[in-house]
């Protein structure tokens, strides 16, 4: 007899003592099980910084749980199901429970094993609550969901109306990168013995950018509130050559593995607003990312179903471009810079992800599933529920418009306005055709022409298609597009 009455399984993205299955755990009667699945570590070409963060955070959590008096069985097994069976063999087939898994794959594994799952509280919106909202919608407009969230959660509202009279400040938050701007300092994290052990095991020289403990995650939250929240809103859509994180929070990895909770993150931002330390346009923009977009994307992942990620509504079948796996395989300064940033630290903020990486995959007709796999493997915050709707729906419009009513395609002019990447690039964002034409500009118009019939009934695409009809150099542009696509396939453009 072991003395345990229950086995509780803590996945690597539920690292919280206060939430999930641990919130009801009893140190005297519950055995905490964490499984470091070798399949998880080796089944994909994971970015080593991502693997380091996931594994070291999990091991640190196991240590913290032991310090709280829990018995923790942290074991390395070939797969998660094998690990669970090994635990049962050692301790007996005790009642086994976990919080709702964060992916369809793990949910299927738990169901096949007979693991009981309890409703997750790692989000502010339960899946049943979101399903009730989504089932009533003709189109799944995030802004509508967000406004209901504000009222339901009592955030930045008075009497059901938005504070300062506006639900969002998007129009105020689209400033291009300022000149000679001094960006705030970034927080770094000292590596302890456990971090170094994990890094050595992986053969990786870890950066000092990402905390792997609850204490470090809280420091990161405090640092963001003090140094970055005030400037976040107006510059959230900008990208620069001289700073990679700008005023972005860098909190998504901690939220996505449970080291931080959305409720406490929002509370800190609201406290700063109430103290007069951050303006409404920045606080509202940040709050919208947490209670709006993050909750919406998680809800849509489950609502749209397991087959959603196989969507390919635009019949995009180009193989993944060489430049995605080697930043030196392109002369495009924006793409080379962004992919290089991903290579270095497994992270870039949402605008390079959307405006550069996803935009390129979209206008080159890159296979959505190949691009999705690359995004999932290379970003430190790339949970399955995050990447599937963001890539398939928003990034490459592979779902036939179920999530977004229009594709997020953009030419070089927009990239030039919102970033500093075009300065010094060999390509000219103003040119559509010719040897020096920006590939984004060429491919944007070529993409519209290729899908002219598909988008002809989309009222939100009318202006773009009218612009396409006015092009006098379309034949030359289409020839240039063929050259560009062939060069991108070779890794020479």
What distinguishing features does this structure have?
alpha/beta, 21 helices, 3 domains, five-stranded parallel β-sheet, Rossmann fold, globular, 493 residues, single chain, UV-DNA_repair_photolyase, DNA Cyclobutane Dipyrimidine Photolyase, subunit A, domain 3, Serine Threonine Protein Phosphatase 5, Tetratricopeptide repeat, two-stranded antiparallel ribbon
Distance between the termini: 67 Å
CATH architecture of the largest domain: Orthogonal Bundle
Name of the CATH superfamily of the largest domain: DNA Cyclobutane Dipyrimidine Photolyase, subunit A, domain 3
Q: How do the helices and strands follow one another from N- to C-terminus?
A: EEHHEHEHEHHEEHHHHHHHHHHHHHHH
Count of the domains: 3
Decide which structural class fits the backbone. alpha/beta
* Structural shape: globular
Radius of gyration: 23 Å
Largest sheet: 5 strands, parallel
The parts where pLDDT drops under 50 for at least 5 residues are none
Strand runs, count: 7
Instruction: Please tally the helical runs, counting DSSP H or I stretches of 4 or more residues.
Output: 21
């Amino acid at each position: 007899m072991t003395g345990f009455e229950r086995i509780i399984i803590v996945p690597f993205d539920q690292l919280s003592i206060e939430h999930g299955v641990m919130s009801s755990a009893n140190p005297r009667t519950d055995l905490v099980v964490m499984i470091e699945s070798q399949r998880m570590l080796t089944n994909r070409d994971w970015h080593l910084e991502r693997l380091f963060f996931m594994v070291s955070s999990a091991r640190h959590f196991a240590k913290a749980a032991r310090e709280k008096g829990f018995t923790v069985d942290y074991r390395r097994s070939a797969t998660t199901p094998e690990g669970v069976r090994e635990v049962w063999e050692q301790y007996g087939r005790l009642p086994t429970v976990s919080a709702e898994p964060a992916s369809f794959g793990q949910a299927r594994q738990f169901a096949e094993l007979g693991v009981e799952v309890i409703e997750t509280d790692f989000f502010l919106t339960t899946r049943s609550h979101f399903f009730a909202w989504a089932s009533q919608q003709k189109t799944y407009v995030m802004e509508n969901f967000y406004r209901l969230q504000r009222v339901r959660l009592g955030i930045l509202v008075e009497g059901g109306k938005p504070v300062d009279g506006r639900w969002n400040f998007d129009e105020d938050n689209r400033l291009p990168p300022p000149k000679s701007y001094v960006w705030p300092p970034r927080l770094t994290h000292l590596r302890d013995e456990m971090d170094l052990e994990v890094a050595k095991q992986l053969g990786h020289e870890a950066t000092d950018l990402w905390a792997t403990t609850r204490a470090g995650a809280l420091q990161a939250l405090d640092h963001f509130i003090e140094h970055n929240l005030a400037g976040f809103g107006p510059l959230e859509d900008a990208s620069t050559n001289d700073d990679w994180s700008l005023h972005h929070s860098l909190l998504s990895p901690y939220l996505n593995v449970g080291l931080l909770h959305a409720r406490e993150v929002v509370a800190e931002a609201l406290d700063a607003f109430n103290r007069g330390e951050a303006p409404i346009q920045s606080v509202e923009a940040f709050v919208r990312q947490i209670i709006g977009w993050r909750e919406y994307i998680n809800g849509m992942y489950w609502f749209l179903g397991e087959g959603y990620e196989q969507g390919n509504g635009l019949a995009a079948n180009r193989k993944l471009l060489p430049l995605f796996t080697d930043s030196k395989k392109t002369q495009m300064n924006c793409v080379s810079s962004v992919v290089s940033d991903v290579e270095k630290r497994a992270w870039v903020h949402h605008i390079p992800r959307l405006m550069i990486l996803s935009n390129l995959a979209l206008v080159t007709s890159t296979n959505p599933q190949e691009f999705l796999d690359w995004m999932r493997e290379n970003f430190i915050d790339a949970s399955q529920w995050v990447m599937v709707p963001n890539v398939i729906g928003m990034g490459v419009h592979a779902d036939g418009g179920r999530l977004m009513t229009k594709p997020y395609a953009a030419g070089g002019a927009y990239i030039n306005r919102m970033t500093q990447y075009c300065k010094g690039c060999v390509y000219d964002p103003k040119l559509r055709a010719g040897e020096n034409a920006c590939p984004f500009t060429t491919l944007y118009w070529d993409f519209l022409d290729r899908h002219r019939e598909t988008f002809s009934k989309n009222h939100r695409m009318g202006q773009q298609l009218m612009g396409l009809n006015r092009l006098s150099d379309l034949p030359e542009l289409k020839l240039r597009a063929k050259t560009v696509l062939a060069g991108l396939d070779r890794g020479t453009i």
